[in-house]
Amino acid sequence: MTTEPVTIEIVSDMVCPWCWIGKRRLDSALEQLPDIAVERVWRPYMLNPDMPAEGMDRDAYLAAKFGAERLPRLHEPLAEIGRQEGIPFDFHAIARMPSSLDAHRLARWARSAGVQPAVIEDLFSRYFEKGEDISDPVVLLDVAEQAGMDAAIVAELLAGDQDSDLVRREDDLARRIGVTGVPTYVINQKWAVVGAQPAESWLEILRRVAAGEDLSAG
């Protein structure tokens, strides 16, 4: 078994429910593989890159995307999958579809602070469980503070446009290299895994990578 850590770059968006499901499933696999060192790095992908900074009414957004007639039962399958993964989705609590640009900026700074996984989990929870607006600087500052980041520094960064262009460039790069849906996982910069894979699949994938196998060999 290789002693080198496995690097997983996770291309995702905080307003994507499948991305939270995927995170929880990967978390479950990692808990069962304590002897395999894994470094996770979250990369930005904005499902709605043209979303205005103030966001928009979520029901109006969903009706335009999926059709108003589907809204009453739209989230039932996801809610059931969430329950199976220990995720208490509360889609009715979400009033607005936010821009996720600033959330991605915060996630980037959280990596530098060594708390990216905690910040990502909290952003998912606040949006999908509590219906909080994760484009609101007050919410983002509280997320940062709860994770142990310096709130004063984060407040100063959020007040400007630090790393906004960088997030947009990374989002564009993901699209140019072929990412069309999230979550997408890039393992050791060699192999891509698309979708919220079950924990059992991750167990097999990570064991093979740690053993030095070539995933492209089937």
From TrEMBL:
Question: What is the superkingdom listed in this entry's lineage?
Answer: Bacteria
Q: Which GO terms describe its molecular function?
A: oxidoreductase activity
Read off the Pfam families from this record: DSBA (PF01323)
User: Ranges for the DSBA-like thioredoxin domain?
Assistant: 7-201
Q: Tell me the leader sequence span.
A: none
Regions crossing the membrane = none
SUPFAM superfamilies noted in UniProt: Thioredoxin-like (SSF52833)
Task: Give the PANTHER family listed for this entry.
Answer: GLUTATHIONE S-TRANSFERASE KAPPA, THIOREDOXIN SUPERFAMILY PROTEIN
Name recorded for this polypeptide: Disulfide bond formation protein DsbA
